[in-house]
Amino acid sequence: MLYPAPKRQYGYFVLPLLHQGKLVGRMDSKIHRKSRELEIFALWLEEGVKITPWSGAGAAPGD
Protein backbone atom coordinates (compact mmCIF):
# COMPACT_ATOMS: atom_id res chain seq x y z
CA MET A 1 0.00 0.00 0.00
CA LEU A 2 1.39 3.39 -0.98
CA TYR A 3 1.15 6.17 1.59
CA PRO A 4 1.87 9.87 1.07
CA ALA A 5 5.35 10.89 2.30
CA PRO A 6 4.13 12.57 5.53
CA LYS A 7 2.39 9.33 6.62
CA ARG A 8 5.32 6.99 5.92
CA GLN A 9 7.27 5.53 8.81
CA TYR A 10 9.97 4.33 6.42
CA GLY A 11 10.90 5.28 2.85
CA TYR A 12 9.06 4.83 -0.45
CA PHE A 13 10.41 1.33 -1.10
CA VAL A 14 11.89 -0.45 1.90
CA LEU A 15 13.66 -3.81 1.76
CA PRO A 16 13.47 -6.16 4.72
CA LEU A 17 16.85 -7.34 6.04
CA LEU A 18 16.82 -10.95 7.19
CA HIS A 19 19.41 -12.91 9.14
CA GLN A 20 18.84 -16.61 9.75
CA GLY A 21 15.17 -16.20 8.85
CA LYS A 22 14.50 -13.32 11.25
CA LEU A 23 13.78 -9.68 10.45
CA VAL A 24 16.76 -7.67 11.73
CA GLY A 25 16.27 -4.40 9.89
CA ARG A 26 14.95 -2.42 6.93
CA MET A 27 16.79 -0.53 4.22
CA ASP A 28 15.63 2.28 1.94
CA SER A 29 17.90 2.17 -1.09
CA LYS A 30 18.23 2.64 -4.84
CA ILE A 31 20.33 0.75 -7.37
CA HIS A 32 22.06 2.79 -10.07
CA ARG A 33 22.31 0.21 -12.84
CA LYS A 34 24.63 2.09 -15.18
CA SER A 35 27.27 2.73 -12.53
CA ARG A 36 26.52 -0.55 -10.68
CA GLU A 37 26.25 1.29 -7.37
CA LEU A 38 23.85 0.84 -4.48
CA GLU A 39 22.80 4.06 -2.75
CA ILE A 40 21.48 3.59 0.79
CA PHE A 41 19.20 6.40 1.94
CA ALA A 42 18.39 5.00 5.38
CA LEU A 43 18.92 1.90 7.50
CA TRP A 44 16.70 0.92 10.42
CA LEU A 45 17.60 -1.91 12.78
CA GLU A 46 14.97 -3.78 14.76
CA GLU A 47 14.99 -3.30 18.51
CA GLY A 48 17.76 -5.29 20.19
CA VAL A 49 19.80 -5.80 17.00
CA LYS A 50 23.43 -4.73 17.31
CA ILE A 51 26.10 -4.48 14.63
CA THR A 52 29.40 -6.10 15.53
CA PRO A 53 32.61 -6.66 13.57
CA TRP A 54 31.50 -10.28 13.08
CA SER A 55 27.97 -9.48 11.85
CA GLY A 56 29.02 -9.95 8.23
CA ALA A 57 30.58 -13.37 8.77
CA GLY A 58 29.05 -15.87 6.39
CA ALA A 59 27.49 -13.18 4.24
CA ALA A 60 29.86 -13.57 1.30
CA PRO A 61 28.33 -14.27 -2.13
CA GLY A 62 27.72 -17.96 -2.58
CA ASP A 63 27.27 -18.69 1.14
How is this structure best described in words?
With 63 residues, this protein is mainly beta. It has a domain at 6-45. The protein contains no helices and three strands. It has strands at residues 14-19, 22-32, 37-45. It has a three-stranded antiparallel sheet with strand order 1-2-3, with no helix packed on it. A hairpin with a 4-residue loop joins strand 2 and strand 3. The chain is globular, with a radius of gyration of 14 Å. The model has no long low-confidence stretch (mean pLDDT 82).
Write the layout of secondary structure elements.
Elements: E1 14-19, E2 22-32, E3 37-45
Antiparallel strand pairs: 1-2, 2-3
Helix/strand/pairing class, anyone?
Answer: mainly beta
From the N-terminal CA to the C-terminal CA, the straight-line distance is 33 Å
| Spans where pLDDT lies below 50 across 5 or more residues | none
What overall geometry do the principal axes of the alpha carbons give? globular
In terms of DSSP E residues, the strand content is: 35-45%
- Can you list the strand order of the major beta sheet? 1-2-3
Q: Using DSSP, what is the number of strands?
A: 3
SSE series:
EEE
Mean pLDDT: 82
Largest sheet properties:
3 strands, antiparallel
